[in-house]
Design brief:
The complex is a heterodimer of chains A (280) and B (263). With 280 residues, chain A is an alpha/beta fold. Chain A has ten helices and ten strands. In chain B, helix 3 crosses helix 10. Classes of the chains: A alpha/beta (280), B mainly alpha (263).
């Protein structure tokens, strides 16, 4: 079976060769199998968004190779093998909800009727069937994000890439959206790569949590999460859930203090790299 | 937008009351202080002149209004065309935009004197050309911004859909620029009318509202001059209202979108 995502020995340096060069990712190796839900977690500036953009081929790696569905990432992007959602819904104001969901299909050259049918199907899936003719600014933040997920999945891509999609939502909406996302991905058997900095979110959603350390960004831990089918509060209040949260937290804490100092001494990397370069 | 009658009354009433109060005050001031007509005619005598000269004012309005309209259309087309070119080539944009803004800051309608020399002074071409230039700058600056200032996320999304530059232009940049175009038109429509009037101050046929104002003052027919000013106001208002209505009709989902805080 072809892996959904293969990252081989990938490094990404911004401003390579210049004094302000930033090693966003170093020697990253990761293989994601179809049907997995993998979260990338780490402190701000650790390169997790960069990793996601390398998979999406919105960035090219400095060295190494990224395969999506067994194809080079660029080919996979041109074939629209993945859907993507960001922290901001990024809906187009001048299109109503259904037309927003239709956009990727339009670009694939689908005809009008087929597009419309699929868009309404997707809106039913994200439970916004009654809002097809609304405009984005008439919806709440959570509803907009659901439209964005519907749009990302409209072409039935096997892979969904998400960059902190629930980061701007309140806690209640967020938990609801997490449940919805699991349901939707279960129904459509979509593989998900999910960037977050929320530990409970990563644990609740994922089959695997990939812990990334900053400066230079590298994978320090991969934690399997085997909590069985998620059942809302029942899962969230279970001892096993808390244990996993603790495990991820400790993995993160490890890189936050002592290890980070060790990396800096070992590599001679300066500790005062410009902040905020991770996301570009 | 569905407004209740009460809300509509609250919206319309204050400016109407203010307008009537202002005119009453004006009328009273002219009577109390006994202003001479050459200084400030009373609204009632202006209105009288307006009613007496409606045919003349209408004819003059048609001349100036046509000049403004032709210039407005030509300038809008030219401005849109140029902004597509500038939007495509960043270097060109950096060269031209500051120049356009700087030129727009000086009262360039004095150029009409030059145009009068270039073309026959009795033709309407110099005036229309002047309006075209003024409108062109306004449209150019705004539409170029609209084509440029597209959200980073929306561009990344389009790249993730493997969209071509042409597709991005058609599906993102152009619709994104539409509200900027309407903003430009709301500024350009009254500006076109003003430019058409002022262009008439630099000689040429005595057939438009601008030249009528000047010639009425020259023969001390002040109330008549003011009646022409009133005509000019109405033409300007008609242009503005048309621009606003166009925006309402052309904005998907109604004006709610432009009412929001520019998100």
């Amino acid at each position: 079976m072809t892996a959904a995502v293969e990252i081989h020995d990938v490094s990404k340096v911004f401003n390579a060769g210049r004094p302000n060069a930033v090693h966003a990712l170093v020697d990253m190796d990761l293989t994601i199998e179809p049907g997995e839900f993998v979260s990338l977690i780490g402190p701000s500036g650790c390169g997790k968004s960069t990793a996601l953009r390398l998979i999406a081929n919105l960035l090219e790696p400095t060295s190494g190779q990224v395969l999506v569905n067994g194809k080079p990432a660029r080919k996979a992007r041109l074939d629209q093998d993945y859907g993507m959602a960001f922290q901001q819904a990024g809906l187009f104001d001048w299109r109503n909800v259904a037309k927003n969901v239709e956009l990727p299909l339009e670009l694939k050259g689908w005809d009008k009727v087929k597009r419309r049918t699929r868009a309404l199907e997707m809106l039913d899936l994200v439970k916004l069937g009654d809002f097809a003719d609304h405009f984005p600014w008439q919806l709440s933040g959570g509803m907009q994000q659901r439209v964005a997920i519907g749009r990302a999945l409209a072409a039935h891509p096997p892979l969904l890439l998400m960059d902190e999609p629930f980061g701007a939502l309140d806690e209640m909406t967020r938990e609801h959206m997490q449940a919805e996302l699991l349901r939707i991905c279960g129904e459509t058997s979509t593989t998900v790569v999910f960037v977050t900095h929320s530990i409970p979110e990563a644990v609740y959603l994922s089959t695997r949590v990939v812990v990334i350390s900053p400066r230079p960004g590298r994978i320090t831990d991969v934690i399997e999460v085997d909590l069985g089918p998620r059942r809302g509060l029942e899962t969230r209040e279970a001892v096993a859930f808390f244990k996993k949260i603790t495990e991820v937290r400790e993995a993160l804490r490890g890189i936050d203090t002592s290890d980070l100092a060790a990396i800096e001494t070992a590599d001679g990397a300066p500790s005062n790299l410009p902040a905020g370069v991770e996301d570009r | 937008m569905n407004r209740s009658p009460r809300a509509l009354a609250l919206l319309v009433l204050p400016p109407v009351v203010f307008g009537i109060g202002f005119l009453a005050l004006w009328e009273a001031a002219v009577n109390v202080f006994d202003f001479q007509p050459y200084f400030l005619p009373a609204p009632s005598s202006i209105w009288q002149q307006f009613l007496q000269n409606t045919a003349l004012i209408w004819d003059a309005s048609k001349v100036s209004g046509t000049n403004a309209l032709v210039g407005l259309l030509a300038g809008t087309v030219l401005g849109i065309a140029l902004s597509f070119v500038l939007g495509r080539f960043r270097v060109l944009n950096e060269l031209v935009t500051p120049l356009a803004i700087a030129l727009n800051a000086v009262p360039i309608f004095v150029l009409v004197a030059v145009f009068n020399n270039m073309f026959s002074i009795t033709s309407e071409v110099p005036r229309r050309l002047m309006v075209t230039l003024v409108v062109d700058f306004i449209v150019l600056v705004n539409v170029t911004r609209g084509l440029r200032e597209v959200g980073a996320i929306q561009l990344e999304l389009m790249r993730s859909y493997a969209a071509s530059e042409v597709a991005i232009l058609r599906k993102v940049r152009v619709p994104n620029a539409a509200p900027y175009l309407f903003t430009a038109l709301k500024i350009a429509a009254p500006a076109a009318v003003i430019t058409a009037f002022v262009s008439e101050y630099f000689g040429g046929s005595q057939n438009g509202l601008g030249s009528r104002i000047v010639s009425s003052i020259a023969i001390s027919k002040n109330a008549a001059a003011w009646a022409y000013v009133l005509g000019a106001c109405l033409v300007g208002l008609a242009f503005y209202v048309t621009a606003v209505s166009l925006e309402r009709v052309a904005t998907p989902g109604g004006v709610g979108r432009t009412d929001r805080d520019g998100a």
